[in-house]
Design goal:
alpha+beta; SH3 type barrels; rod-shaped
């Protein structure tokens, strides 16, 4: 009978002891748990949106920023591939160049002038060429300076 009573109490106490051990192990585990980082859901990128579309939108925003720091000049309406360098001459001790658009209208440019759709700025004019520094967006999203050169074409040279 005592044996039976002992086995019944043991059966009743075992689940309680197991629960106490489990609770103890949970509190120890909670002490060693790492805290999850806070997530900013407002500025989280949509995983289904095209990465290229996001980069294009960021590039447009950046180009608006760098184009707004000066007043637009007439030659900024043309792509550089449609402009043709037709003459380079000296005015005093400075060199200036003449650029022609696709309609045949000529423009005089000097170092510091802007031209092209990517806000290219004339950095120097040599005897045979015009050197521009354009701002462009790298694949990483950074704005980088790119050097572009327009050269004089010979009269007999095909275009």
């Amino acid at each position: 009978m005592i044996r039976r009573l002992f086995s019944i109490t043991l059966c009743l106490l075992l689940p309680a002891l197991a629960g106490a051990e489990e609770a103890m192990s949970k509190t120890q585990a909670m002490q060693h748990m790492a805290k999850a980082p806070d997530i900013d859901f407002e500025h989280l990128r949509d995983p289904f949106e095209s990465y290229l579309a996001v980069m294009r939108q960021q590039a447009q925003q950046r180009s608006q920023q760098w184009q707004s720091d000066h007043t637009r000049e007439p030659l900024e309406a043309f792509d550089l591939s449609t402009l043709k360098l037709v003459a380079i001459f000296s005015m005093g001790n400075k060199r200036v160049a003449m650029v022609e658009d696709s309609t045949g209208k000529g423009y005089v440019v000097h170092p510091g002038s802007y031209m092209g759709t990517n806000s290219g700025r004339v950095s120097k004019i040599t005897k045979e060429s015009l050197v521009l520094i354009e701002k462009s967006v790298a694949p990483t999203g950074e704005i980088v300076n790119r050097e572009v050169t327009l050269t004089l074409k010979e009269v007999n040279e095909p275009e």
